[in-house]
Known about the structure:
By secondary structure, this protein is an alpha/beta fold. The chain is about 45% helix and about 15% strand. It has 14 helices and 13 strands. It has helices at about 25-35, 35-55, 90-95, 100-110, 115-120, 140-195, 200-225, 250-275, 280-290, 305-320, 340-350, 365-375, 485-490, 505-515; strands spanning about 60-70, 120-125, 130-135, 230-235, 245, 290-295, 325-330, 355-360, 450, 455-460, 470-475, 490-500, 525. An 8-stranded mixed sheet has the order 6-13-12-7-11-8-10-9, sandwiched between helices. Strands 1, 2, 3, 4 and 5 form a 5-stranded antiparallel sheet that branches. It is rod-shaped and about 160 Å long.
Amino acid sequence: MTDTTPASWPTDGPSAGTARTxxxxxxxxxxxxxxxxxxxxxxxxxLAALGYVLLVPAAVTASAVVAVRPVVTDAFTPSGAGxxxxxxxxxxxxxxxxxxxxxxxxxxxxxxxxxxRNALEVEVPTGGQILRFSYQAPDAQRAVQGANLxxxxxxxxxRTMYEQQRAEMLRSYDASITKVAAQQVAVQKRVSSAKGxxxxxxxxxxxxxxxxxxxxxxxxxxxxxxxxxNPGWVTQTAERALATSAGHRPLYLVAGLLGGxxxxxxxxxxWESTDRRVRSVNDGRxxxxxxxxxxxxxxxxxxxxRAVDADIRYVAMAVAERVRQPARVALxxxxxxxxxxxxxxxxxxxxxxxxVFVADDSGRVERLRAAVLADRGRLPVDPSRPLVPKPRxxxxxxxxxATAESPAPRRPSPHPPGARPSTDPDATLTLPRVxxxxxxxxxxxxxxxxxxxxxxxxxxxxxxxxxxxxxxFNAPPAESDERGVAVARQGSAVVVIERDRTRQSDxxxxVERLRAAxxxxxxxxxxxxxxV
Length: 532
């Protein structure tokens, strides 16, 4: 670790009075991170729509059109400008769905009047004298029959009503004519008995008035009798070829899927409001109030981890800039495991020639060793491998210290020592050379040391690393173990935040605990859910 004096870390967060702009990406981030919930609710909506489509029988709709006409005395008289107001279409629509029409349909089709009333629908176009009868049934034949029966039943009911009204009026006129005719007979008798007298003249004048009244009554009765009581005609009958399915069944599936997705998004926002997670650098900075040391991204392809390794090396440079040896750096988390990040930082720091001691008191030493060995193999340049000297060209001068009288090198024997037995009983037995505990670069190594570049990484407990210059402590989760905060009091701390998993409430509580214990964290590292 370098011995540079730590400089003050500039505040890279936004000012307290500046409000951050919420973008469309921020709005989409919550549903994307709660994608499982959204997909699950969308599938539930789709299954509900599919169940409705499969369990509820399909309905077929047939339509018949009836043209309604007013009752007129002369059918050949042209209608005036207010012909559309000659008939109250609201009343006609009520009669078309009335009890008499429904009862006739029930008697003809043999169904329940309530079901028939629900299946029958009458539409009245604005400003027209047309009634459109629509009838729904499980099959096309019943739908066509129901629509035609409804239209004909309406015309029959309306014609019967008109005929009853005309019969009542004719009966009234007949009674009046009979009464006036009786008066006429009585007056005629008076005229005959009092002829030539003043009473006869008065009776004659009365008879003339009665005759005029009788003439008017007969004329009015004739007009009433000539009234055309036809209420209208069926201009379009329902046919099987014109019957359509009631609604598009596939649209129910689309509606169920979209409705479920919308409900899932709402539930995702509701869940996010109660369980806030760190989704971005801004969330981590706002929740912790610490500077950012770096972000560790998950590689786009599992077979290409270079982007993650480069991010870890940048984080290692930021940590090295902040501390100097002897250094005790604790990687603390709220509830997550920072083993992979600890191993990556150890490799990145040791590759530059540092002696790094990785301490762990939670039984994760073997995992740390395996992670260090895996990360060491992905170093871009491995300085631990000895450089092979290039051969000198012919005629080049010999190096200093070599004499011209040097003997020629011996040709190696084709038979190595011990390859064939010797017949001499006093011959010396040659034993193979025992290799010493040295690494490839000539440095002595121990059993718990891993050579990384020109440096090394050792493993052990916190007490075993007391004499080392640079110690990385793989702290257990702070929510269940306080040893990470206790170790940070003897050195410094790096807060590790795992994106989409670390809760903002846990992060705030961890930072408050560190500051209450007198620890000033170096900053935070934002990792991605996955490898690190």
